[in-house]
């Protein structure tokens, strides 16, 4: 990923009176009463919008929400207007559509420093098809383009990639910039020793990340449901723990690859097991190699936490993707929370700690430690693909610095 031009490179002369199409990621969770339950993504979009407002731009915000099939009222962006207005300190106007005559009228009425939110861009199937005609209609609303939606940067959609064919300059927003600086920067040029903690339930969804990180890290710590596939590959009895039978050979080859690269790979030595998958299951701690029949591993054990913490104490950069256990159940959240606490403590000591998207973010939020980390990625799939070393279409489409 070569460095891209950023919104910070644009000055008042570039922005004053200009219509700026800003792709943001406002895909936030809403409850049954359409109230926002987590406004992280809305808050993350604020710095770029405020910068544009402050330089006299006419801001046009575009986002998706959920996976609507056509126009679906429950996926309307309307419920976001009050919170967005409150955060920006102005009354944000809202359009009932994202293209067409009505929208054009509203755009021409935006004052300098004003903000118009377009309706869910995924109400049109052309968005996800990256249809050039649709992209052209979106682009026709504006003079230039800012992409600050890191969470959808791994998708080549009309609003993330297609519009860049018609709008110049096309630059990265502050959030996008920060994501790239941390995720690309950490992986391509980390302060060493560099450790990665990879968890989650399945090896299959993390193969790419593990393989890519084995080229870069000094230490790799593995947790979550995926460890049982590694255990079984080593001939351990895993009881009724989750195992991907078709990935046993792969698990063995990943361990061998780590050895040949001199990467210290740590698998948990003890696990917390349960007699059923339930928050109130009976549980006990056993050695990793002796899980009894009918029991399943749902978290890493206290010895593993100690070993993991000691390994992390030696590091200068840590990237974490995926929980250590079933942290949704309090009884099996200890491993994940211990990692969150350790990383918070290391951050304070100057270690670069990067929470790479997905469930790890939820875990850090649950522990109330989000503000302690160096960087928390707002992208799930996008973070994973970046860590796997894949190019992101939404980033590639932006202008080179």
Assign the CATH superfamily of the largest domain. Answer: Phosphoglycerate kinase, N-terminal domain
Strand order of the largest sheet: 3-4-2-1-5-6
CATH topology of the largest domain: Rossmann fold
Shape descriptor: elongated
Distance between the termini: 11 Å
| Poorly predicted runs | none
Q: How many discrete structural domains? A: 2
Structural category: alpha/beta
Provide a count of the helices.
Answer: 15
Overall mean confidence score, pLDDT = 94
Care to count the β-strands? 17
* Major sheet details: 6 strands, parallel
Instruction: Determine and state the CATH class of the largest domain.
Output: Alpha Beta
Percent helix range? 25-40%
What is the level-2 CATH architecture name of the largest domain?
A: 3-Layer(aba) Sandwich
Beta-strand share of residues: 15-25%
Binding site for ATP: 206, 328, 357-360
Enzyme class: transferase
Organism: Kingdonia uniflora
Pfam family, one: PGK
Summarize it.
The protein is an alpha/beta fold. The chain has two domains: 171 residues, Phosphoglycerate kinase, N-terminal domain (Rossmann fold, 3-Layer(aba) Sandwich); 198 residues, 3-Layer(aba) Sandwich (Rossmann fold), CATH 3.40.50. The protein contains 15 helices and 17 strands.
């Amino acid at each position: 990923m070569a460095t891209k031009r950023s919104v910070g490179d644009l000055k008042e002369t570039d922005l004053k009176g200009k219509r700026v199409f800003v792709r943001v990621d406002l895909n936030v969770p809403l409850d049954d009463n359409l109230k926002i339950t987590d406004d992280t993504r809305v808050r993350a979009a604020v710095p770029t919008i405020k910068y544009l407002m402050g330089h006299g731009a006419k801001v046009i915000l575009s986002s998706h929400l959920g996976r609507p099939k056509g126009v679906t009222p429950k996926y309307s962006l309307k419920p976001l207007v009050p919170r967005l207005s409150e955060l920006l300190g102005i009354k944000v106007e809202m359009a009932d559509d994202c293209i067409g005559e009505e929208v054009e009228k509203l755009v021409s009425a935006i004052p300098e420093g004003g903000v118009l939110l377009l309706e869910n861009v995924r109400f049109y199937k052309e968005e996800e098809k990256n249809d050039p005609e649709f992209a052209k209609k979106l682009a026709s609303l504006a003079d230039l383009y800012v992409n600050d939606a890191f969470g959808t940067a791994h998708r080549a959609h009309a609003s993330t990639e297609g519009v860049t064919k018609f709008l110049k300059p096309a630059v990265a927003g502050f959030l996008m910039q920060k994501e790239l600086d941390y995720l690309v920067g950490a992986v391509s040029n980390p302060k060493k020793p560099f450790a990665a903690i990879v968890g989650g339930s399945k090896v299959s969804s993390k193969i790419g990340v593990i393989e890519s990180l084995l080229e870069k890290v000094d230490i790799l710590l593995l947790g979550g449901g995926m460890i049982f596939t590694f255990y079984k590959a080593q001939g351990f009895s895993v009881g009724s723990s989750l195992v991907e039978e078709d990935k046993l050979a792969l698990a063995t080859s990943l361990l061998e690859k780590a050895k040949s690269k001199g990467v210290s790979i740590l698998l948990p030595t003890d696990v917390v097991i349960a007699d059923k998958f339930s928050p109130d299951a009976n549980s006990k701690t056993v050695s990793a190699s002796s899980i009894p029949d009918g029991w399943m591993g749902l978290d890493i054990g206290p010895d593993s936490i100690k070993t993991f913490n000691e390994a992390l104490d030696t590091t200068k950069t840590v990237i974490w993707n995926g929980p250590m256990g079933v942290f949704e159940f309090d009884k099996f959240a200890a491993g994940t929370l211990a990692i969150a606490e350790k990383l918070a403590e290391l951050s304070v000591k100057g270690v670069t700690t990067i929470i790479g998207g997905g469930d790890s973010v939820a875990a850090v939020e649950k522990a109330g430690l989000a503000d302690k980390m160096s960087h928390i990625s707002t992208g799930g799939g996008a973070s994973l693909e970046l860590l796997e070393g894949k190019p992101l279409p939404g980033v590639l489409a932006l202008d080179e610095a």
